[in-house]
Fold this protein.
Amino acid sequence: MSVTRPYGIQRTIAEAKDAKKVIDEAIQAKEKLVRIKSAIKREQRHACMVVAECEQTRLKAKAEELKNSAAKTATTALNGINSLLGGNKVNRLEKENKELRNEVEELNGQIERLHADMQKMKDNHTREMNRVNEQQQQEVLSLKRILEKAYQWFPSFKRFLNMERECLQYGFSEEQTDKLMHGHTINYSGWLHSNEHRRNALANNVSAQVIRDEKRNLFLHINQMPIAKWFREQFNIRQGQQKFHKL
């Protein structure tokens, strides 16, 4: 049986401080990922607006097509009237009809230019999305490399991260977990969750502390006993029953 060292965790704090620079880089990379995700959401909203504008343009083009068709019909009718009646009134109508056709042609030109601009916007949006996705992948790979280096340079760093995650899963707050990771003993009252037993146990003013054994492994103790043993006592599970349950 290995001898626990309640205050041995203080020596590991010095190693964790050496990893501060690596941790800061990881945090900065994570914040940058958040900003990239926000940029992606903005681009997605912009893409929806672009699609809506395209639909409006299509409807406007259809309306102009109908207007052009009506203008042609009016020209045919005016030509028939002119052949029957003649006169200044018909000539004036022909002039107005010509001006109308010119306006329709100008509108059609504007629509074509608008279509070209919309296509250009779509192409730019696609390129920007591809760039953002590629940048996000690079940031993820960079973050992974930073963590891998941290694990290699500071073996205790990974043990600290695992113990921090376990404390949070048991039910300790971030503030309480931070105190535990700094080697402090805290008093705790409330529910503690056991993933092993899939149950909660009510802790009434218990003492909690993270300790390190001779092999520099970290363990969470409740009332000076391993938390796994403390859970078994709370659930009235004997050691033999626990082994049989695992089988």
About this structure: Confidence is low (pLDDT under 50) at residues 239-247. The two ends are 24 Å apart (CA to CA). The beta strands are 186-194, 199-212, 218-222, 225-226.
